[in-house]
Amino acid sequence: MKITKAEVEHVARLARLELTEQEVETFTGQMDAILAYVDKLNGLETAGIIPTAHAVPMENAFRQDEVAPSIGIDNALANAPDRADNFFRVPKVIE
Question: Model-level pTM greater than 0.85?
Answer without folding.
Answer: no
